[in-house]
Amino acid sequence: MNEKARSADPAAQRMLDVVKDRPAGTVWDRAAAQQPQCGYGELGLCCRICYMGPCRIDPFGDGPQCGVCGATADVIAARNFARMVAAGAAAHSDHGRDVAHALLLAVENPKAGYGIKDTAKLLKVASHFGIATGTRAVQDIARDLAKAALAEFGAQEGELKFAHRAPPARLELWRRLGVVPRGVDREVVELMHRTNIGVDQDAENIMRQASRAALADGWGGSMIATELQDILFGTPAPIRGKVNLGVLSKDTVNVVVHGHEPVLSEMLVLAARDKELVELAKSKGASGIGLAGICCTANEILIRHGIPIAGNFLQQELAVATGAVDAMVVDVQCIMGSLGELCKGYHTALVTTSAKARMDGVRYVPFDEHDPMSTAKEIVRTAILSFPNRGRVEVPDETMDVIAGFSHEAINYMLGGRFRGSYVPLNDNIINGRIKGVAGVVGCGNPKVEHDRVHIELVKELIANDILVVQTGCSAIACAKCGLLVPEAAAQYAGPGLTEVCETVGMPPVLHSGSCVDNSRILIALSEMVRVGGLGKDISELPVAGAAPEWMSEKAIAIGQYFVASGVLTVFGVGLPVLGSPKFTKLLTEDFAGSYGGCWAIEPDPHKIAVRMIDHIQAKREKLGISKAKERVLFDMEMRRELKAET
Ligand code: SF4
Ligand code: MSK
Would you give the end-to-end CA distance of the chain in angstroms? Predict the structure, then answer.
């Protein structure tokens, strides 16, 4: 596979050329070495849940049609899928739990250095939890909120508080279906129990619990993470930043943060500005200290501080290969196991910081939550000391401007003004047809498909059809790199209606809403669109759709399932490990539409994903009676070739 076919990003292509002959290789080389990958696994037909197995089902019908225990293809595929939901929900929710701990710490140990940045949001979120506010001290309200949020993880009965933010019709539907989450941990544990050997052997019933666990993620763990992070570190508002490997300055000491949780990176932002450390960096010949991010930690510090992003998931190794990363600091999730060996071939100091995510042979600087600044300073000092050891530095030139930070509140203010913030203008523009609908395009990168290509082509086609796109995670980074997340992109790529709205408000046609846990912001935005009125009584009636075009993580599956269970058509690119069971596939892609009003779709081709989403949005418009005949802008081969040439 040549470098061009591996990535649509010229900076990544350039780095792939640079590392071509290096023994360490990259994720693409390892993906190639894995070919052909296990067909049973691809189809969801392999089971290793107990040690009578591993078992596999013959998809052609000639070999075994059930495992040693008698589990069928339907049950095996459903159990595998449900366990991905459980793992994804656990990851997001454990993040949420840590943020709730940080909020408690902010109150109980002010010396730790965390404070309450957004008091208005504290009061609002406290009210969702039924916590008295009035004239009470901020610290007391925050303490109560932190404790109430922590209690949401261990609750055994009842309903998660944030589930009540869903439109009443949706909440009622969940109640009828028996999927309103109780406690976050309870739903994940029960799902793991039910997918053990010899427990739940009905795919539909397994997925009922999978929905409950997924909803516990989206409307529980992830939403707690997002909301409490905003309270602690500030609610994002539109902010300008830069993105791509070119942000790594050759002259500064560069610290790259990678992972997901902002509790340390927030301190690194301050440590990188510390006068003493800046002086130390200068004494080693650097012009200063630069901070940049990879993956979702990058998104977190971009949306709050405008800190540049060096790249998305598939670029983590390429960043090290520039030779300009003096320290890479990682916490949890999406950190490639190859980094340890890779960094040994460069001067880069790799530092793990989470007790939950250590790497064999890699330096561990435990994150001290009671004194996070000293951890942050130690890491920056480590980077400064490794700066003089730099070898050859080859940083691609590419950088791109990005406007990020479109939280639910920011969208509110932007559209309705600071004092009468509201989604009314958004709904009005959807009803009058300037904006056809809203699409969430999110998720990872995957070497099974050309890096960034599917994200970019899909999003361009959506905005050309006047569909406002909201993004998070590595998908947002992919589109930011090719210039879609700036206001000027509207005139260049968007349809006339969307362009008019964007130019009036001064916003990009593609809104960056944050990290993976911030998909919960999209849930809140959808609920708000319903509440404002004119677009039906439930999320499933809205002209909206979602996609994860280059997904790879179990977290993406949890996200997909909570969007589906919230009533949204959700299209996954690459593939889905369920196709070995036609019955289970039908449950996900057809039957769910009947029960939840949202369902999965599986489609690797960006153009076909776009067609599926646009047609869905159009059908919803027709149902709402707001459809004026307008042809879909069909991207013919010529236009698609032009797209390819541009990216
Ligand atoms: Fe095989 Fe059943 Fe054990 Fe799975 S649970 S490995 S299908 S025997
Ligand atoms: S970081 S989960 S690769 S989006 Fe959230 Fe990116 Fe996917 Fe990790």
Answer: 18
Name which residue sits closest to atom 3 of ligand 1, judged by CA. 50
Identify the structural domains of the chain with CATH numbers, from first to last: 3-44 (no CATH), 73-233 (1.20.1270.30), 245-389 (3.40.50.2030), 401-624 (3.40.50.2030)
How many angstroms is it from 70 CA to the middle of ligand 2? 36
Structural contact between residues 175 and 144, judged by C-beta atoms closer than 8 angstroms:
no
What confidence score (pLDDT) does residue 22 get? 84
Does residue 334 line the site of ligand 2, with CB under 6 A? yes
Confidence band of 630 (pLDDT split at 50, 70, 90): low
The strand pair at 467-471 and 510-512 is best described as: parallel
Residue 432: both structure tokens together = 């009058």
Residues 45-85: tens digit of each pLDDT = 999 999 999 999 999 989 999 999 999 999 999 999 999 99
Element containing residue 596 per DSSP (H, E): helix 592-596
Q: DSSP per residue over 616-637, as a string?
A: HHHHHHHHHT-----------H
Cα(548) to centroid(ligand 2), Å: 11
Q: What is the pLDDT of residue 413?
A: 83
Q: Is the CB of 295 under 6 A from ligand 2?
A: yes
| Mutation to probe ligand 2, out of 334, 471, 519 (largest number of atoms < 8 A from CB) | 334
Mutational test site, ligand 1, from 55, 76, 201, max ligand atoms within 8 Å of CB: 55
Over residues 20-28, the mean pLDDT reads: 89
Indicate the average pLDDT of the chain. 95
For ligand 2, what atom is nearest to the CA of residue 260? 5
pLDDT digits (tens, 9 = 90+) for 294-307: 999 999 999 999 99
Higher-confidence residue of 631 and 358: namely 358
Global pTM exceeds 0.90: yes
Question: In this structure, which ligand is nearest to the CA of 554?
Answer: 2
DSSP states along 454-478: HHHHHHHHHHHTTEEEEE-HHHHHH
Pocket lining: 548 vs ligand 2, CB cutoff 6 Å = no
Going along 214-354, which residue ranges are E strands?
239-243, 253-259, 289-294, 309-311, 327-330, 349-352
184-224 tens-digit pLDDT: 999 999 999 999 999 999 999 999 999 999 999 999 999 99
Q: 440 CA to middle of ligand 2, Å? A: 15
* Ligand 1 pocket, CB under 6 A: 47-50, 52-55, 67-69, 71, 76, 197
**584 Cβ contact list (under 8 Å, min separation 6):** 44, 73, 74, 77, 78, 81, 203, 578
Atom number in ligand 1 closest to CA 55: 1
Residue located nearest, by CA, to atom 8 of ligand 2: 334
CA-197 nearest atom, ligand 1: 5
CA distance 118 to 116: 6
Q: What are phi and psi of 624, to 5 degrees?
A: -80, -10
How many separate helices (H) and strands (E) can be counted in the chain?
29, 16
**pLDDT at 493 > cutoff 80:** yes
The one-letter amino acid at 626: I
Ligand 2 centroid – CA 476 distance (Å) = 10
Distance from C-alpha of 295 to C-alpha of 555, rounded to nearest angstrom? 14
Which ligand neighbours the alpha carbon of 57 most closely?
1
